[in-house]
Automatic annotation (TrEMBL):
This is 2OG-Fe(II) oxygenase. PANTHER family: 2-OXOGLUTARATE (2OG) AND FE(II)-DEPENDENT OXYGENASE SUPERFAMILY PROTEIN-RELATED. One of its GO terms (molecular function) is metal ion binding. Residues 185-292 form the Fe2OG dioxygenase domain. It comes from Embleya scabrispora. Transmembrane segments: none annotated.
Length: 331
């Protein structure tokens, strides 16, 4: 069967579902790029199926990570770290503060690791200053025993998927496929899992599992638990639920793609709402934040140099931009 835009878009809407399974043919890539381009200029969010990341790996990653969060607090605290860096955090910060919105802390724990956190001390030392989260060594729990190897495999496989998504996005913008490559050839991406514990006590007024924010890298590839709702995306003035499809990922653009494209593409506000009172389930989501090279410039790119998004950026490099955001989230 030939691939065209209507066959790769398996469900249309504000957050369409796009099937990537024909991405190894030129015709398939062209159709997928078109579908991605439509989503990126309207919502900046889409769901991918047929992405090629083995279900077994996603399930293993979910299982080992969830098991870690179910350990007693004292054991998790053994790998606690300072804000934004690799390791465990009992309080995962306040994402709304990245946009200077003052809200109570998010009802969320986190565990994070950076792809650069596996490099040698010397290599990491060359990637930026002390504050920069990607210059720190990863910290790993001892339990479950295959936690680290599973995370390493997941970071590698989802990182490769992100690199191909960037090539498809370049195609969608009618650029060479490798247009974004030199901005990501020593990227400091991270996986920063959100664990939303059971809500026994009622939240404070204005307190959410994750407050409203935009992501600040290039793209985010998020895996969510199939049957646990919560993610909402802002469409105009309305919050829209994003439902999870088993084995899929939600992909969304971060601020840097909006900036690089001079505002032609959008980085959309989203949040995670609380479960109904009486629903005491936990929820775990696994975002892979594809971040460009720390020293990449954040100027709008040619041919998009007339930028309406430029006002939102008062820093020069990815390193300054990301460090400033992280400091706000944990302030
Ligand atoms: O947990 C979710 O569904 C989304 C979390 C999120 O937006 C984030 O971590 O940036
Ligand atoms: Fe987000």
């Amino acid at each position: 069967m030939g691939s065209d835009e209507s066959t790769v878009t398996v469900a249309d809407g504000f957050v369409p579902v796009i099937d990537l399974s024909s991405r190894d043919t030129a015709r398939g890539r062209a159709a997928i790029a078109k579908a991605i381009g439509n989503a990126c200029s309207s919502s900046g969010f889409f769901i991918i199926v047929g992405h090629g990341v083995p279900r077994e790996l996603i399930d293993r990653m979910f299982d080992r990570t969830n098991s870690f969060f179910k350990l007693p607090e004292e054991e998790k605290d053994l790998i606690a770290n300072r804000p934004g860096v690799s390791g465990y955090r009992r309080a995962g910060g306040t994402l709304a503060r990245s946009l200077d919105l003052q809200t109570p802390p998010d009802l969320c724990e986190t565990f994070a690791a950076h792809v650069t956190g596996e490099l040698s001390d010397q290599e990491r030392g060359q990637l930026g200053d002390e504050w920069a989260s990607w210059t720190h060594k990863n910290i790993w729990p001892e339990n479950p025993p295959d936690f680290r190897s599973t995370w390493q495999e997941y970071m590698r496989v989802v990182g490769d998927l992100c690199a191909d998504l960037m090539r498809l996005m370049a195609l969608a913008l009618e650029l060479d496929e490798d247009f974004f490559e030199d901005k990501h050839d020593h990227h400091g991406s991270s996986v920063a899992v959100n664990y939303y514990p059971p809500q026994i006590e009622p939240p404070l007024p204005g307190q959410l599992r994750r407050g409203p924010h935009t992501d600040f890298g290039s793209v985010t590839v998020l895996h969510m638990e199939d049957d646990r709702k919560g993610l909402q995306v802002l469409q105009g003035t309305e919050w829209r639920d994003v439902s999870a499809i088993p084995g899929s990922f939600v992909v969304n653009l971060g601020d840097l793609m909006a900036l690089w494209t001079g505002g032609r593409w959008v980085s959309t506000m989203h949040r995670v709402v609380n479960p109904e009172r009486g629903d005491t389930t936990s929820r775990l989501t696994m975002p892979y934040f594809y971040l460009p090279n720390y020293d990449a410039s954040i100027e709008p790119m040619q041919p998009f140099s007339e930028s309406s998004a430029v006002d939102r950026f008062d820093t020069v490099t990815v390193s300054e931009w990301v460090s400033r955001k992280v400091q706000k989230i944990f302030s």
